[in-house]
Write a structure and sequence with these properties.
Order of helices and strands: EEHEEEHHEEEHEHHHHHHHHHHHH
CATH topology of the largest domain: CHAD domain
Helix content: 40-55%
Strand content: 15-25%
Number of domains: 2
Number of helices: 16
């Protein structure tokens, strides 16, 4: 059993001109009415990682800690600036299986070894409001760190200060406290975690470096979580642009694996989208990446997306049916419609959820992750990859647009019914591919690519809503049959089916006008500027 907590904290250290000392009085800052002493506690922690430090590279920490009120195994996953999710498991001699699963996408078959030992003498104080409610905990940690691998090194020592919000606390409090802390001679820590600082300061090569090199190495330990704006990279090659996009999708697939295991909202959808983006860019930029290498990987990505889709599609379909049912007047809801829908959805979820976890733990998924690493390590670049990005990327985007145009025209002229449904679905897939191609093109083509992506997204969303209606009608027919067999009224399912038909017809009527706008030559001309 594990517990998950959202940790929002900031770390500080003494400035170069200030010696390590006690904590300043923070009473009166914002809503802080009192600062209560909670005493000293000794924390003894061993941090684990692979020999190649795969966890540390992604800002992930895994430790076994004794002392304090939360002793046990702790896994910390980065969320954003000042924010991490901490997953805790009870104290044991070996790593609990639940935490081992959460690091599997990064660790895979590699052994986890003790990397660093940290001993912290923590002076703890609570910041409380006028009613005595906890706002934040602030502590001064006197840390002794020793590297354990590849061999035991000499200890290093420092004092670190942490301000951690209470559960549900307002992050604005951290901003309010900071001026008082800096006035007392503190500054933001150069390292994002104790582990990062310990690794930097116990680096065997550190002793051979001069003062300037040591200062530079310390700064490099700080890892920013802020998103950087996408800039037009005029000097980049086509290979640079495409590989940067590929790398982002692979990073997302690996990072979202534990979120899917934890059943974090929207994680399945985001991971599935990353697999689709990656597979799509392989096909769109086939003049840049050799399809002899990427096609087999793409086939595995298609398999993974399908496995992820079982759970995701159920979520989307259930939400749609529930929304439609809520629109029906109570007097037209005949029979236990809501209860049957809930039971039908939960039955599908139990099977799909278990299956998905088996997939993530399976050799096929782990082998795919290894192949994606290999792709980045040795990219299968074709000659066009060395050409300037703009011309190669533009050709790919326009080619995908042409493919979409053919499919939309076919759908507009298809007879109503199943044939039109199928052609619209094919057009939807083409719109998605054109959207991802434009998304990847942003660094090469700049803002016009962003605007073009928005146009493609509009087409995809309209066609996607139409396809969701097709799937909803199939589910409603199934529910109606089940209801009838159980001796219940199937009237409401028929009513909902008719409404879905009407919505689909409305989307079909909207498509010609939308496409007339999207297909204006001016939009494509803008990409060439």
């Amino acid at each position: 059993m594990v517990d998950t907590m959202r940790e929002i904290e900031r770390k500080y250290e003494a400035s170069g001109t200030t010696k390590d000392g006690g904590l300043p009085d923070l009473t009166g800052v914002d809503a802080v009415a009192d600062m209560t002493d909670r005493g000293m506690v000794t924390l003894d922690a061993t941090y684990y990682d692979t020999p190649g430090r795969r966890l540390a590279a992604d800002g992930v920490t895994l430790r076994r800690r004794t002392g304090g009120g939360d002793e046990g195994w702790h896994l910390k996953l980065p969320v954003g600036e000042d924010t991490r999710d901490e997953i805790r498991a009870p104290l044991s001699d070996t790593l609990p299986g639940t935490l081992a699963a959460l690091v599997r996408s990064r660790v895979r078959a590699t052994e986890l070894i003790p990397l660093v030992h940290l001993l912290s003498e923590r002076d703890v104080k609570h910041l409380v409001d006028a009613d005595g409610a906890l706002l934040a905990e602030i502590s001064a940690d006197r840390v002794t760190a020793r590297r354990l691998a590849p061999e035991t090194g000499e200890p290093v020592r420092w004092t670190e200060y942490e301000v951690e919000l209470a559960e549900g606390g307002d992050p604005a409090l951290l901003d309010a406290l900071e001026p008082r802390l800096t006035a007392a001679g503190l500054r933001r820590s150069a390292a994002p975690s104790k582990l990062a600082r310990a690794l930097a300061e116990t680096d065997p090569a550190r002793s051979a470096k001069g003062p300037a090199q040591k200062k530079s190495a310390k700064k490099s330990a700080k890892k920013s979580t802020k998103k950087k704006p996408v800039k037009k990279a005029a000097g980049d090659t086509a290979g640079d642009v495409v590989l940067a996009y590929v790398r982002r999708q692979i990073t997302a697939i690996v990072a979202l694996d534990p979120a899917v295991r934890l059943d974090t909202p929207d994680s399945v959808h985001r991971m599935r989208v990353a697999t689709r983006r990656l597979r799509s860019v392989f096909r769109s930029y086939r003049k840049v990446l050799d399809r002899a290498v990427t096609d087999p990987i793409g086939a595995e990505l298609k398999w993974l997306a399908a496995e992820l889709g079982v759970d995701r599609d159920r979520e989307v379909l259930t939400a749609r049916l529930a929304e439609r049912l809520a629109e029906v007047p109570v007097e037209l809801r005949l029979g236990p419609v809501a209860a049957r829908l809930r039971i039908w959805s939960e039955a599908r979820r139990q099977g799909s959820r278990g299956r998905l976890l088996e997939v993530l733990d399976g050799e096929r998924h782990l082998a795919l992750l290894d192949r994606l690493d290999g792709l980045l390590a040795d990219p299968p670049l074709r000659p066009a990859a060395a050409r300037p990005a703009g011309e190669v990327i533009l050709d790919a985007v326009l080619r995908d647009y042409g493919r979409l145009a053919e499919r939309v025209e076919a759908a507009l002229h298809a007879p109503a019914g199943q044939e039109r449904d199928l052609t619209l679905h094919e057009a939807r897939k083409a719109a998605k591919r054109a959207r991802y191609a434009a998304e990847a093109a942003r660094p090469a083509l700049g803002k016009p690519a962003k605007r073009f992506r928005k146009l493609m997204t509009g087409v995809q969303e309209l066609l996607g809503d139409h396809q969701d209606g097709v799937v909803a009608r199939e589910a409603l027919r199934e529910l109606g049959v089940q209801s009838h067999a159980a001796g219940e009224s199937a009237f409401t399912y028929g009513l909902l089916y008719g409404r879905e038909e009407a919505l689909a017809a409305a989307r079909e009527r909207e498509l010609p006008e939308l496409w007339a706008e999207v297909s204006r030559p001016a939009h494509r001309a803008a990409l060439r500027r």
